[in-house]
Amino acid sequence: MSEFGHRIAIDSIRDGHRIDITAGAAEREAVADRLGLLSLECFKAHVTLDREGSRVKAAGRIGASLEQSCIATGDPVAEHIDEPFELIFIPEPSQAAPDEEIELGEADCDVVFYEGGAIDLGTAIADTLALAMNSYPRSAAADAALKEAGVLSESNAGPFAALAKLKRGSDEP
What we know:
Blueprint (H helix, E strand, L loop, with lengths): L6 E3 L7 E6 L2 H11 L3 E14 L2 E15 L6 E16 L19 E4 L3 E3 H12 L9 H7 L5 H4 L1 H13 L2
Parallel strand pairs: 5-6
Antiparallel strand pairs: 1-7, 2-3, 3-4, 4-5
């Protein structure tokens, strides 16, 4: 069972099936641990499910209030997420031969595979949260900490900075 598991039987899903999920304290703590968050104060989702045979479309919105560690200082960085999402649940494909490659197209990126007769909507929503979060949270003190550590900013280390440095060097007698 996942930390935010909300399994829904495929046979119980009717078009327009609406579900509101709010994570309890234990679920928020478990999701925060899995995602490496300092805290997850609020985590909820509003979802509408539609089913066509064994294929289920989940569309809705996730909301979360969380804190991550700054990548430079380790200071807490607060973030509020309010994002729409759309997922397609399809049965796990049969095992491909070991030498057979499987290519996924752009339309396959929001596909979640399931086994058996139920989807795990909660885990898919927790994964969606992971994708919606800022990958490189930075506190107000991040730039100063990076500069002090000798890390060049993109403007100082990029190709145009190297060209500017060459030009300044050629102007000198």
